[in-house]
Design a protein that fits this description.
- The protein is of the alpha+beta class.
- It contains five helices and ten strands, in the order αβββααβββββαβαβ.
- The longest helix is centred in the last third of the chain and has 15 residues.
- The protein is globular, with a radius of gyration of 18 Å.
- The chain starts with a helix and ends in an 8-residue tail after the last strand.
Length: about 230
């Protein structure tokens, strides 16, 4: 498959249906995946992706009638999700959803190592696959990228850099290198971040992940668990 076809296959598997309507409406679907552990063993009862043309929001099958009753407008569905799912304290978040078919031609920035490597920091340990690490001058962890392998076709990248190494362009080199690896493995790399995270946005754009106006939608049971 070409990368755009891989993306469509990933979103079909991840959400249950793809593509979204092309008239700005929201398509709410029930998927058994929302009742199953995700890449790290955690539950994601609501997952959605919106494009400038429309959106698909995937929910637990038991919630489908109540969420569909919210209508087909994205703002109304987002606002009503906690009430419709019986979780009034839940938090709905909207992030930037990026994907790449042509990573920036930057020099490699790190080394692929297994998560069992004792030098790998705790935040990279849960990723379901080897991780990409840049070492500092003493050979200790300096920056890294993990792959959230949601399915055969979609691998979401997450990057982190130690404060002492920030501002050197290491993160963008790692993300571009990881994206090339994902494409070579036959999947498509995705990159999600908070709209307020300007630094992450700069890394994404510099490594070949443009902002196409796509957004990610998720729901967590409290503000403390957002992003996990």
């Amino acid at each position: 498959m070409e990368p755009p076809e891989r993306l469509a296959a990933h979103l079909t598997e991840w959400l249950g249906v793809w593509p979204p309507p092309e008239d700005g409406r929201v398509l709410v679907v029930g998927s058994a995946h929302r009742d199953e552990p995700g890449w790290d063993g955690g539950m994601r009862p609501v997952v959605g992706v919106a494009t400038p043309d429309g959106a698909v929001i995937s929910v637990r099958p038991a919630w489908l009638p109540a969420v569909q009753a919210l209508g087909d407008g994205l703002p109304g569905v987002i606002e009503g999700l906690p009430r419709a799912t019986g979780l009034p304290a839940a938090v709905v978040g909207v992030g930037i959803f990026r994907w790449s078919v042509d990573p920036t031609d930057l020099p490699d920035g790190g080394e692929w190592v297994p998560t069992e490597d004792p030098r790998v920091p705790p935040w990279l340990k849960p990723f379901n696959g080897d991780v990409l690490v840049a070492w500092d001058d003493e050979g200790a962890y300096g920056a890294g990228v993990g792959r959230k392998q949601h399915d055969r076709w979609g691998h979401e990248l997450s990057v982190g850099t130690e404060p002492a190494l920030r501002g050197r362009g290491i993160a963008r080199r790692l993300v571009a290198q990881a994206a090339r690896r994902v494409l070579a493995d036959g999947a498509v790399p995705t990159y999600l971040h908070d709209p307020a995270n300007v630094a992450s946005a700069h890394v994404a754009a510099a490594s070949g992940f443009p902002d196409r106006g796509w957004r990610s939608i998720g729901m967590w049971d409290s503000a403390e668990t957002v992003g996990r």
